[in-house]
Fold these 3 entries.
Entry 1:
Amino acid sequence: MHKLDIPQSTIDSITRRAGRPHPFDSIDPRRTALVVVDMQNYFVAPGFMAETPMAREITPDVNRLAEGARRAGGHVVWIQNVTSGTRDAWSTYHEFLQTPDRAAKRYASMADGADGHALWPALDVKAEDTRMNKKRYSAFIQGSSALETHLRGRGIDTVLIAGVATQVCCESTARDACMLNFKTLMIHDALATDNDALHNASLNAFYLNFGDVQSIDEALESMARGARAAAAAQASQGMNHAKAGAPHYHGP
């Protein structure tokens, strides 16, 4: 996995602003979704144009995080980038930000049903998880996917971001999640890109202004802490209801 390098000045800035280094250190797992971005062959498998070797290295970590989120009561969404229907709708990207040969190769490799669109086979995807296509870097931007509607329908208010590449689709999705008022955490040891410098620059920029950066273990503990807080609040509410409904003795 990448070596995390967040400057102490960033941590100090967050602590001054939020009162603690992790603003989302207690999250209700029942209202949390792990959004795994683009862990598909085009970005993970050897030989593809956007192969990111670190994505193969973090696969067991992504699986561990997904299992922990499910066990805690959270929801897991596997996002797959698809190029079908984007040649004209995202023409600026295909015509100006890629050479014609690269654009054609990218378009063909991630078309719906192409090998590059398929999820990396070592991922532990369960039947209760959701799989969803996106058509832009961000899964939340208009016209990209139905992710926001899907999460709102399940009462989700918190998202954990994992996958590839840290500073491209993962950060884009994470920033837009914040803009849509989701509590957003980037899970640094379940993210991958080409090198540590890109990884850390992305996380530092996100952490300063958009959300939280935690490890897998920290995120699992944040969910456990949130579950305990939710259970305590529910128990307290039950006691208050019981007291309110109890008969009162008014004397003879």
Note: Residues 216-245 form the longest helix (30 residues).
Entry 2:
Amino acid sequence: MRHGKKHNHLGRTTSHRKAMLANMASSLIKHKRISTTLAKAKALRVYVEPLITKSKNDTTHSRRIVFSYLQDKETVTELFRDVAAKVANRPGGYTRIIKLNNRLGDNAEMALIELVDYNEVYGQDAAAADKKTTRRGRSKVKKADAPAAEAKAPKAEAVVEEEAAPAVEAVEEAPETEEATPEEVPAAEEKAPKS
């Protein structure tokens, strides 16, 4: 009986599936991202994430366990040296699956699976978002102060609108004073004291 056994067989025998996943995991660790079908990417995520968790504890025992899965010394060395250092304070979720267009030959769903900490694109977007300033020319607002700044911003805009309203009325009144008759202008000059 197969009760509770829910992993995807991927249309392969057990030995073929294990060998394929070991090779894909080695490629993922070496190249940091690989393109494959969506089903294989999901199966690879289940296969490789426990190995990355195991690499956080650098002991002989954990190295031997990971080697029994991957069967590649260089990959194990890179996993325990470089990858483990990057994911040291991440509690899980070391991989990201991004869906791509379907493959032309058989219309299979394709996906890109990558190690999260090695993606430069998402890190640059976050850094660029931090450098942005508001339109009013204020200095950079810290993330912790952002909710307080958003609460203050509507009040400041309301004050600006109230100050702007009298200025508009003054502009409207200005053309009326320019239309004064020539008789009124000398009368205004006579009232003003000469210095």
Note: The beta strands are 33-37, 95-99, 110-115.
Entry 3:
Amino acid sequence: MRERLEVPKELLARYATSAPRYTSYPTAVDWEKDPEKAFDPATYGERLEAAAAARPGEAISLYTHIPYCAELCLFCGCNVQISRSNERRERYLEAIEHELRFIERTGIQKRAVKQFHWGGGTPTSLDPDQLEQLFGSIMSRFHMAEGAEVSIEVDPRVTTPEQIERLAGLGFNRISMGVQDFEPDVQQAIKRVQSEEMTRSVIQSAREAGMKSVNVDLIYGLPHQTRDGFKRTVETTLDIAPERVALFHYAHVPWMKKHQAAMDTDAMPSAEQKLDLFADSIEAFDTAGYVYLGLDHFALPEDELSVAAADGTLHRNFMGYTTQRGREMISLGVSSIGEVDGCYVQNIANEPEYVKDVAERGFATYRGHAMTPEDRLRRDIILELMCNGRVDKRRIEAEHGIDFDATFALELGELRVPVEDGLVELSAEQIKLTPVGQVLMRNVAVPFDRYLRERKARGETGKSTFSKTL
């Protein structure tokens, strides 16, 4: 019988601090914009060429960002543009075509694509013909590897059965959608009115069209959420039975996302109430048989993410959890982030500048970070904790040429309290998260973050930079 996951509320309260989510290490706040320092954006093409030549037989990941939404949800932290202009969308598709031509000249497109994702914004703000046009433009250069995951984010409020049918016909086999909460008063408060019937209809259309995987996003910490109300949302989600669920903690950052200032903060649940929402949800998904992958993600036992977590091959990149370990990632579109030839790279976040840059020079990379050997060492450790819940010291030593305990004596010392609290088990051979430690893995990863340590030494707490861990 599978061991039940039980997390003491007192422990959750004690570890509810601000910390990075580690979609990358170093995190984006530590990347250099100055070409005189770690990374020169003008070398993006050279990096692509180097990656094409050095690893021609390895598959890659490919991401495309479509920023448009018809309305602005108050909770949103993504890079979005509120527009219903078809002319603007056509201009954007033309800009991506410019970017594709530049990438094609580097030879990187000869490598097969194993993970392919469209995010936003709302990719299904494009009409069926535009969806097909964009897909065709990309696939006229790239080609899919066998068994590739081909996914797209959809908004049930604007997604039609025709779009779903067209997407499935193109080869999309997975959809992801935000629900956040099914309670009407919560939906009104966050300006995301999306009925249960609407959500079920899109999921049914996707499954009837042959899409094999559905992900649903929920958020706790929103105005007017109650313990009973969110339990109903979770119960409805379990009845829908998506293959994957992401349970996010709402990050209220109005100094970064000005529209969030319109949120009724007086109606938000207290810190203690949020812990109740989280603990209740963990218990409900665990009882229903979902595998807790860590951070805020769950998957059915037969899902490939659960299988990868069980055998220690789960990975994490800017698209989230994935089975595609070590894949370099090419990213298209405004604000998109990629990883090429040992460097993180990001496109400009301003849409007019992106369109101008790709028209003039073929790319819109404006910053990035060239990883050092120490960056790669620490990333390896952090990703192993975040993805597979354990670090094999001997493997790290063999691959990076270090003495683990000597190199990380300070960090191991800082893990003493998490060990005493039952989050971590330390041995001569490994660092291993307990089931409770899986819930609090961000806290356990923090000691290995050299950049965060240096920020704290400078008096920068990170409270206005990173979201709460719970």
Note: The first strand starts at residue 60 and ends at 66.
